[in-house]
Amino acid sequence: MRFYSLKNSSQDICVLCQNSDNLIEFQVKPKDEFVLLCDNCISSIDEPTKDENHWRCLDNSMWSEVEAVKVLSYRVLKLLGKTDECDMIYMEEHIKKWADDIPSKDEVCIDANGNILESGDTVTIIKDLPVKGAGFVAKQGTSVKNIQLVSNDPTHIQGKVNGVKIFILTKYVKK
Ligand SMILES: [Zn+2]
Question: What percent of the chain has pLDDT over 70?
Fold first, then answer.
């Protein structure tokens, strides 16, 4: 299972801002490639103008050697209107194409049984899940109230377990 593993190496940091709290493996669509992102980045990645100060981290991440990181940095810079920076990111043709192929947001979020999940729903966790970066296991049978959908990522929801806001794979919950 690739999404939840206990934090055990210094490499567990957000690829954009280097934060190490509350990380999630984020799919850089439409490719099947994942990067670790933190809560802060996820919360404004679709509307980065909400938190322009945070996104100063792109001044570093845009120089990453990792293609998926370049692609994300490019997409956010573009949303921020920073076209000069976008032009500075060196991308081969096929990577540039990937960066410009921004997925639509209308995918639905479904639970283990195929039921549609919406923000505000209450779900039950159906499998013990070690939580990356939080140091505890979200136990099977735990009820999570008032879940939030994750923008741009129908494979996860956010909810509070043990008083901590965490990301949970939708395939391990049911309504
Ligand atoms: Zn981050």
Answer: 92
CA distance 20 to 37: 9
Cis amide bond preceding 103, omega within 30: no
Instruction: State in Å, rounded, how far the first CA of the chain is from the last one.
Output: 22
Locate 146 and state its tokens: 């008032």
- Cα–ligand 1 centroid distance for 16 (angstroms): 5
How far, in Å, is the centroid of ligand 1 from the Cα of 55?
9
pLDDT tens-digit readout, 23-39: 888 889 889 899 999 98
Classify domain 123-174 at the CATH topology level.
Answer: SH3 type barrels. (2.30.30)
- Of residues 164 and 10, more confidence is placed in 164
**Cα-atom radius of gyration of the chain, to the nearest Å?**
17
pLDDT at position 133 is 74
Distance 116 CA to ligand 1 centre (A): 28
Both structure tokens of 115: 């039921």
Distance 18 CA to ligand 1 centre (A): 6
Q: Where are the domains of the chain?
A: 23-100, 123-174
pLDDT of residue 4: 38
Q: Are strands 143-144 and 137-138 parallel, antiparallel or unpaired?
A: unpaired
C-beta separation of 158 from 147 below 8 A: yes
